[in-house]
Amino acid sequence: MNLSEKREALLTLLQSYESCLVAFSAGVDSATMAKAACLALGNRAVAVTSVSPSLATGEKEQAEQIAREIGIEHILVSTKEIENRSYQKNDGRRCFHCKTELYTDLAKVASEKKIATIVNGANLDDLTDYRPGMEAADNFLVKSPFIETNISKNEIRQLAHEWALPIWDKPAMPCLASRISYGLEVTRERLRMVDQAEAFLKSLGLVELRVRLHENDLARIELPQESILPFLKHQSTVKEKFQEFGFQFVTLDLAGLRSGSFNHLVTLKAP
Question: In terms of CB atoms within 10 Å, which of 30, 148, 207, 254 comes out highest?
Fold first, then answer.
């Protein structure tokens, strides 16, 4: 199928749900799903955003703005995954515990509002990486309409552009906990360090980046190859600021930016 046919298949699938709740993070995937749900179901579609210490600065506000532009009802819920010891210990199942907390809260909202189906923005590309959160989605019968209609990440961006969503080209923005090395406990302080560090780098004009936190408060900065030379002009300032944020060591990863760079540390068949 071409993209036009996939778009129609997506809208038809969403219409079959009668009503739906979109897990809405303000990323391009969930924003495009929210737009599609609104087109398919009108006021029978609701977007819900989880607010917790793992949400980067500015993401909640952007979610609110995008929801207003789409015209979809938007609800904020405070999730408590940071209080879950299984989540804190940060093994290969952290995302499962996080999503279990999220979908538990979304199921409560869906029940209260008598919404038939919960959907997420997972797409075909997510099937090629380690995604324990998908197991949590299955446990709560959460639907992934992009996967069911064979829509990829690139096609989602095309749909977002076609629907004039302002974040159609927004870089991927996983939760802050994904920046903390597996086995290193997730704490509010470490999430704050990463958040401040990434916000500072963005203030220098860098757009795509990750600040990975390792043992001994070591920061490993990932940037696209084309951003490395511009970054080096600021290396002294970056070192000073990162130390103010709590990092003891600051490094630049010469391999560049890549999604899920910690995932090679866990088996795809993690228990």
Answer: 30
Name 36's Cβ contacts closer than 8 Å, sequence gap at least 6.
7, 10, 11, 14, 145, 159
Q: What is 3-162's CATH topology?
A: Rossmann fold (3.40.50)
Per-residue confidence (pLDDT) for residue 261, from 0 to 100? 59
What is the domain partition of the chain in residue ranges?
A: 3-162, 176-265
Q: How would DSSP label each residue in 62-79?
A: HHHHHHHHHT-EEEEEE-
d(CA 121, CA 23): 7
Where does 113-218 have alpha helices with state H?
Answer: 133-139, 145-148, 153-162, 188-203
Matching fold, domains 3-162 and 176-265: no
Per-block average pLDDT, block size 10, for the chain (271 residues)?
Answer: 96 97 96 98 97 95 97 97 96 94 97 97 88 91 97 97 95 92 96 98 95 97 95 95 98 86 51 39
Q: Which structure tokens are listed for 104? A: 């538990």
CATH code: domain 176-265 is 3.30.70
Q: What are phi and psi of 212, to 5 degrees?
A: -90, 135
